[in-house]
Amino acid sequence: MQSLQHLHTFSLPTSCNDILTFDSVNSLTKLLESLHKSPYIILGEGSNTVFTEDYCATVLLNRIKGITIKDDKTHYLINVGAGENWHQLVEHCLRKGIGGFENLALIPGTVGAAPIQNIGAYGVEIERFIFKVEYLDTFTMTKASFSREECAFGYRDSVFKNQKQNERIITSVIFKLPKQYKLETSYSPLNTLKTPSAFDIFEQVIRTRNEKLPKVSEFGNAGSFFKNPVVNQHVLENIKSRYPKVPVFKVEDSGASKHTLFKIPAAWLIDQLGFKGKELGGIACYKNQPLVLVNLGRGTGAELLLLAREIRDSVKATFNITLENEVRLIGKEGLLSL
Ligand code: FAD
Ligand code: EPU
After folding, report:
1. Does residue 159 have a pLDDT over 70?
2. Closest residue CA from atom 49 of ligand 1
3. 229 CB less than 6 Å from ligand 2?
């Protein structure tokens, strides 16, 4: 057995049968052939994956590197190996005078995982910059790609998140960034900056994230544990009648009806129920951001599941809202639901 504690940011003391690394499509193909269809999971930097117990199969680490940048009069086209670190790409681009990614600074993880849940922060989601996502189709063992439209992006969602496990392994991502663009400053605290540059936004996002979110080196965590729920007018009115100050953000329904829907911060729902700072064994609901569950250093997967279920059930009982996981929970045979 090999330890997984250092390979996922929640840092639970878990193991797997074997850990293998690939750094090219060729080496990935060879590894898959050598596995003879035995189970495996692809892992980037493990910042959205929690191994809740020993995983009885193989972990394949994606370390495909390389960044090439081309440009024409209006756009940059940036082809990035899926194993590159996301934040380093943001910095690399800014140093070259290429802006666009600054609101997404300091999001942990690999470039290859970024399209899977359409990473987002401070008013920007990665989908707006995706030109193509290149992947290995593991049924046909051939290379293929999806355009942005084919990725079917949504809030923390894409075709890759909903696929059968390991159906497509992302090998590189091609981003298209316009040379002229409007900086996204509508979100607090970016809206307090006076005529900021892309670099000012980058620095402010880093400051804000460092204030709000726990450092993974201090407390193991996987960022937001649940997604922010999106509810209809009826559910919202019901909550408003009891909690007139409920914070709420309008979102347009992408379905045929085009009804207005409302995003309610899960952090607020959890906060109302008094979970902030609550500890269950070695796991806690983070004191500054209750949407983040943390490993106090001695936590177990069983404790994490207990606390997460308690939060989910309390939110359901009080608000009639079912929280969905944002993180990927892995049990001994693969993906777990809460
Ligand atoms: P992993 O956890 O390694 O993998 C995630 C999933 O994708 C797994 O199911 C894995 O099997 C699959 N996978 C990984 N790579 C591939 C591949 N190449 N091909 C096919 N499948 C693959 N997310 C946000 O959107 N916004 C935030 O602001 C944000 N903040 C965070 C803050 C903290 C402190 C932490 C710990 C996490 C945060 N996250 C955030 C979540 C996380 O950073 C992102 O989901 C990130 O994209 C995960 O990258 P990873 O390489 O670590 O993915
Ligand atoms: N809130 C409380 N109590 C708290 C903290 C927050 O009530 O202790 C309420 C406040 O109303 C606040 C609101 O929750 O305005 C939103 O909080 P915050 O700005 O911290 O953002 P979030 O909705 O909790 C989302 C993403 C983050 C992303 C930030 C910034 C999800 C699930 N999470 O968090 O992404 O970084 O916005 O854009 O959408 C992640 O995905 O892992 C992640 C960290």
Report:
1. yes
2. 109
3. no
